[in-house]
Amino acid sequence: MTYSGEVTVGGPADVHELKDLMITKIAVGPMNNNAYLLRCRATDEQLLIDAANDAGALLGTIGDDGIASVVTTHQHGDHWQALAEVVAATGARTHAGREDAGGIPVPTDVLVDDGDVVRVGNVELTARHLVGHTPGSIALVYDDPHGHPHVFTGDCLFPGGVGNTRKDPVAFASLIHDVETKIFDALPDETWVYPGHGNDTTLGAERPHLPEWHARGW
């Protein structure tokens, strides 16, 4: 089956099979949050991005192999509501952006800064600190050596725009600057974008609309 990235709460997960990495996307909770389970194909080690809600569904997706790590993309509550239960069940190490860790009610084992590498088995993900939606939001970039990059953007980039900055022009200016310089300027159009809610997109699909986003201010 071809991966589409279109998932619904209560529905099946969708699996993006890359040569070195398997990415399983599942939607959970009343805010239609996306959680992503990454599995290194060489070692079978697993990492979860955003234990957002519905620990039972997430643990069922994780399966008996467990997870080594959980990365929380930012401090908003809809992205960590199942974190305590998932960590208790798996013993996973927790990662979060340094500036957001204090807003997450589960202790963060690894404070993540811009440019840090987060590993799952033999696979390396590079963290990018994006300021504006929250002070410490992070995206994770997987630069697939066999294909195009993949980026997990939390709530900082979606199809159609950057994340919510609550009509604060300073926060919007910060977020769109970081998204442009650290994501759009650094990665090619083929880059696949996995957001914190809703459907996936690519940088190529969104790039032509950057001037519109600047003009409207959100």
Automatic annotation (TrEMBL):
Residue span(s) of domain Metallo-beta-lactamase: 32-197
Top-level taxon in the UniProt lineage: Bacteria
InterPro entries on file: MBL_Glyoxalase_II, Metallo-B-lactamas, RibonucZ/Hydroxyglut_hydro
Pfam family membership, one: Lactamase_B
PANTHER family associated with the record: CONSERVED PROTEIN (PTHR46233:SF1), HYDROXYACYLGLUTATHIONE HYDROLASE GLOC (PTHR46233)
Protein name: MBL fold metallo-hydrolase
Organism for this UniProt entry: Streptomyces vulcanius
Phylogenetic lineage: Bacteria, Bacillati, Actinomycetota, Actinomycetes, Kitasatosporales
